[in-house]
Amino acid sequence: MLFNSYGFIFAFLPVVLIMYFLFIKLRYFFIAKLWLALSSLFFYGWWNMHYIPLILLSIAVNYVVGRRLLSSTARRSVILILGLSFNVLLLGYYKYADFFIENWNGFTGANVPALHLLLPLGISFFTFTQIAYLVDAYRGRVQEYKLINYILFVTFFPHLIAGPILHHKDMMPQFDRLRNKVWNWSNVMAGALLFCIGLTKKMLIADTLAGYANNGFANATQFFDSWVACLSYTFQIYYDFSGYTDMAIGVALLFNIRLPQNFNSPYRATSIQDFWRRWHITLSHFLRDYIYIPLGGGRRGFWTAIRNVLITFLIGGIWHGASWMFILWGLLHGGGQAVQRIWNRWGRPLPLALCWLLTFSFINVTWVFFRAHDMRQASRLLRGMFGMNGLGLSTLAESILILPVLAVLLLAMLTSPNLTERLSKLRPNWRTSLLMAVLFMISLLFFNRITEFLYFNF
């Protein structure tokens, strides 16, 4: 079920919300949480009912392993390894089995038949969320929680499909806080406005830019049309993913649940490291806390830290999908951070404006590998972006309408404040209501081209 659909906005969400607070008003607190958990599973199963047993199996195994880690004093490392292996194998089977078979056939000339597995929605997100839970349980950072709280922690529908990646200590206690069991008009207003802003980002901006990006990646060969394609995708993926996150945070606020921020003006970054502090923040924190630091971080010397950065971003690339392009994209970002660290150690400080330009250019170039279907398509776009096939002045007229839009989006990125955190603290007033109504009506005008969110594929 899509956030940007009539069924979700006018049926599923109102029914779930009303019944949840009705059960709470009647003091059926367990029933309220059970209703929310079952509704979340229904939301997940809307795509494919056959994968509900899969997510329930994942929840059951991880909950049992987590309880064992909390209660056992012997062989805790073995229990942890078994739990992590289950998650990695589950993710690997559904996400990477056909990728390995295809490459094995290519390298060896074998003819192993592909499994043609349908990727379960959100498997990367709910798997990483539970891996973090197990590691923290092993480290003694987890308290005992009821099963229903754990199920909600994993399945709570606003974040289930495309994040943000949650941390147990921030989420599970929220379902039992007394102040979260009271209808809160401030949260309702702020959540609804955030939802409308995210909906506008998706429907008006991201989906409009998608046409230019898709056409350019399919056909662009020269300087202007290649850059239009690349920049269109640069802003499309941001407004698509941040739009989803805004909607997820907004919907959660309706239930008095606060999800973590996932974006902080990432295209203002003045280094690759700064970019990853601002882009997909919850994934960045996961990679840092559960991969980079356990590998040794920067505690074992400069060059070991460089190696750990490369490994961390290689895993980050693989997490995004079963493709050599994602692997290359991850290695490029790891390499970008390595170069930055080397320069910071032996180079001279650069002007801030130049740092931003180099960073933004690097991000655009690497998005080409992220978006391209294969190296041939990526090479064609990059040759065009570097002017190796001519300027393409004849195609400039075709892009004349989108260029001012891209310029305005870039200017807005560089100058406007980060609104998401501010909006989550808004008080109800008529100005907020009017803005929300206008954004919602504008978004409804574009419901004739409802599309999935990009990160549903990851």
UniProtKB/TrEMBL annotation:
Q: Name one GO biological process term.
A: alginic acid biosynthetic process
InterPro entries, per database record: Ac/AlaTfrase_AlgI/DltB, AlgI, MB_O-acyltransferase, MBOAT_fam
The residue range of the signal peptide is none
Q: What is its main location?
A: membrane
Q: Which GO terms describe its cellular component?
A: plasma membrane
Into which family does the record put it? Answer: Belongs to the membrane-bound acyltransferase family.
Q: What name does UniProt use for this protein? A: MBOAT family protein
